[in-house]
Amino acid sequence: MNSPRWITWTDASFVLRGFLMGAADIVPGVSGGTVALIVGIYSRLVTAISHFDLSLVNHLRHRRWQAAVEHVDLRFCVALGCGILLGALSLASLMHYLLEHEMSRTLAVFFGLILASTFLVARQVERWTAPNLAAGALAALFAYWLCGQIAAEAEMSYGYLFFCAMIAICAMILPGISGAFVLLILGMYHNVTGVIKDMASGNITVDNILVFVVFGAGCALGLGAFSRILRVLLTRYEAATMTVLCGFMLGSLRRVWPFKNPAADYPPDTPFKRMDFVNIWPTIDVALVITLLLAFAGFIAVLAIDWIARRNPATPVRSAET
Asked: Which residues pair with 277 in a beta bridge?
């Protein structure tokens, strides 16, 4: 009799999907929820998070360990969580470098990814009614407005950090609404990512640990509350909810528009993270062709991943109703 394997190919696939989500979540304008939709785990993720509830506490209190593990889909959560953490820690510096030195080309890839994933989400909507379309249009307008807001700079305080974490984590699980960009608007993005980069490079201090713990606690509270609301919406109003998600994703394209100029004449020594940018229409040149090709590559990559996933379903995806 063969003994069960600790790690399976399915676990590895969830780690990889989590890695992609973690990498996306540290980029202002790109949503980890969008990536979850692209790789086919969105409903399962929302369901698993929402099951960290009183039923879980009851299972634990009565020492029903196996029931608790199954209730929260623990194997899936652990694999995905490890991937998210690994992606955020290992790619934080790379993403900062790409956005600073290859911004247009990097944003072009993200633009193609989000545009294609919007198409895939729209394909899941069974009923395109007038109220649903109106809700989707309002969501698109809200996301478009939000992505045009100027980032603020805020003083670090643990109470404000906790509040920002609650708001940002709700955004992170909504496709099209970037939690990283919400942190940027609230003035906490550079504080949080700075701590992540410090800890990833081995600079672990008491202050960094406190920031990490407070931020994590805020995320846990916000995620637990919001995921239950989202699960109910996906269960009872699936068509309307998916239409709204499409709107969020379309509106967020404003933030990842590849063609930008600095919003002001900044001094040469201005740090990149202190600069704001405005969208412009591109000029017709070789750089435009390269940018369009990269956006097209991102678009095709998402469609290819979806095609492969449909032909080779690795595991049954839990419904949002469970």
From this structure: 262
The token pair at 133 is: 């379309």
Please state the pTM of the whole predicted model.
Answer: 0.67
> In 102-205, where does DSSP find H-type helix?
103-123, 130-146, 158-172, 179-186, 189-200
DSSP 271-283: -GGG--EEE-PPP
262 three-state secondary structure: strand
d(CA 216, CA 201) in angstroms, rounded, equals 19
* Rounded to 5°, angle at Cα 220 from 214 and 153: 50
Between CA 320 and CA 204 the distance in angstroms is: 39
> Which residues, including other chains, have CB under 8 Å from residue 267's CB and lie 6 or more apart?
none
Retrieve residue 22's tokens: 């973690």
Q: 43 and 317 in contact (C-beta within 8 Å)?
A: yes
pLDDT of residue 22: 84
The per-residue pLDDT for range 32-57, each reduced to its tens digit, is: 777 787 777 887 888 888 888 788 88
Domain residue ranges in the chain:
9-96+125-281
On whether the CB atoms of residues 165 and 226 are closer than 8 A, the answer is no
